[in-house]
Design brief:
- The protein is an alpha/beta fold and 436 residues long.
- The protein has helices at residues 8-17, 23-26, 48-62, 81-87, 90-93, 105-122, 134-149, 162-173, 193-199, 221-230, 330-363, 385-393, 424-435, and strands at residues 67-68, 126-127, 153-157, 179-182, 204-210, 234-239, 256-260, 276-280, 291-297, 303-310, 377-381, 397-398, 401-402, 413-417.
- It folds into 3 domains: 1-37, no CATH class; 67-78 and 346-435, Aspartate Aminotransferase, domain 1 (Alpha-Beta Complex), CATH 3.90.1150.10; 81-339, Aspartate Aminotransferase, domain 2 (3-Layer(aba) Sandwich).
- The chain is globular.
């Protein structure tokens, strides 16, 4: 009630406005078995500092001191202290959309730097001011490809993050956009090129793949690009692990690159908020969703920044907007910008090499499910993934993702991930548990 201090009379007034007589009427459409009929089993009102103390104790019990080998789109990387120092400054923390360039130069500058670094990272020519997250960037890229090509069919690899595919289906469901899912090679874990070729038609606008894919396997983007372009479609390349781009060849053969920036100083935070990216070739710039900051000069000839492109419904006619529901994550994207500035080109490469080395140490001697090269996560046959995770928890180790949840054919497999935060003694515990 502290943050929603409604009196009984106010509640009755709101119920009346809804045509209801009681709160029971409000919940009447719900099955009785899901309704809580008794008070919650929590202590009576306690002070704020007691609540904070309680959660600190729970956090210590639940997570403090645990090693984690869970990846699958959210990764445990070190967060430089400087990132929080910068984003906590009032001019960034409290700022909103920089419509008025004359008073928003600081925010516009950081967005411009973000766009520049994303282009350098991905090998693309233009990038926007960020997206909600990686999952929503995927359907935005699909709709962008449909606008560019005038076609309506989309192909997506089953090795793309399952939740990203779910978001894609949600976006396309009521737009009448047919989406075809193509499988992966059961031996390599890479995309089945023959399946892609069989489903490519003159109506296909885009083929969406991920590299490293959900299994951690690296895809042959160049070969796929040749195949997709031969049919007049566009290639969309997705990544969930931004750190991989410190050592893996950027997807320069793609037409659109989308991904998740969580690895760059953004805390896992139970799944968000994160920041997505979308970058593309300059010739497609007018179809990119959201905002784009450009460089100009002011009345005195000094370097300045402004919103150069903003093809959102707030700025132009709704029917001409490239997206009516996307936005940028300015503060979260700023964290990633500071991270990239702190590490620099050489630092990002060293970070990626550490991830690569530790993952391959962890994988040594384990029964790998796929043969393809991988970055910092990989699939292992373990028999019963849930039993393995329970065994590891007793040793204060958080295991991998049981893949049967998304891929029934991989019910005996787990997806393990190692980052620069992984220590040798913890990795040895995982290896011994798998091999036992």
């Amino acid at each position: 009630m502290r943050y929603l201090p409604k009196s009984d009379s106010e509640r009755n007034e709101m119920l009346a406005a809804c045509g209801l007589k009681s709160l029971d009427d409000l919940y009447s459409y719900l099955p009785s078995k899901v309704l809580i009929k008794k008070p919650l089993n929590i202590p009576a009102g306690i002070s704020e500092y007691e609540i904070v103390d309680y959660f600190k104790k729970q956090a210590n019990l639940m997570a403090n001191g645990y090693a984690s080998f869970l990846g699958a789109g959210v990764y445990n990387h070190y967060r430089p202290v400087l990132c929080d120092v910068v984003v906590s400054r009032g001019e960034f923390l409290t700022s909103y959309t920089p419509y008025q360039a004359e008073i928003s130069q600081g925010t516009l500058t950081t967005i411009f730097e973000f766009q520049t670094m994303v282009c350098q990272l991905t090998g693309m020519e233009v990038a926007n001011a960020s997206m909600y997250d990686g999952s929503t960037a995927v359907p935005e890229a699909a709709m962008m490809a449909i606008r560019i090509t005038g076609r309506e069919h989309v192909i997506v690899a089953k090795s793309v993050h399952p939740e990203y595919r779910q978001v894609l289906h949600t976006y396309t469901l009521n737009q009448g956009i047919p989406v075809t899912e193509c499988g992966y090679d059961s031996e390599t874990g890479q995309l089945d090129l023959a399946g892609i070729e069989a489903n490519l038609t003159d109506h296909t606008a885009a083929v969406i793949v991920q590299s490293p894919n959900f299994f951690g396997c690296l895809e042959n983007v160049r070969a796929l690009a040749d195949l997709v372009h031969s049919k007049g479609a566009l290639l969309v390349v997705v990544f969930t692990e931004a750190a991989s781009l410190g050592v893996v060849q950027p997807p320069v053969d793609a037409d659109i690159v989308v991904g998740e920036l969580q690895s760059f100083a953004i805390s896992p935070s139970y799944g968000g908020p994160f920041a997505g990216i979308i970058a593309t070739k300059e010739k497609f710039i007018r179809q990119i969703p959201g905002r784009l900051v450009g460089q100009t000069v002011d009345a005195n000839g000094n370097r300045a920044f402004c919103l150069t492109l903003a093809t959102r419904e707030q700025h132009i006619r709704r029917e001409k907007a490239t997206s009516n529901i996307c936005t940028n994550q300015a503060l979260i994207a700023l964290m990633g910008t500071v991270f990239m500035s702190v590490y620099g080109k050489a630092g990002l490469r060293e970070l990626a090499e550490q991830n690569l080395a530790k993952a391959h140490y962890l994988a040594g001697g384990l029964p790998a499910r796929f043969k393809a090269p991988f970055f910092n996560e990989f699939v292992v046959r373990v028999g019963d993934p849930e039993a393995l995770n329970k065994k590891l928890l007793k040793k204060k180790v958080i295991g991998g993702l049981a893949l049967g949840r998304f891929y029934p054919e991989l019910a005996d497999c787990t997806l393990l991930c190692a980052t620069e935060m992984s220590k040798r003694e913890s990795m040895d515990i995982v290896r011994q548990a798998v091999q036992a």
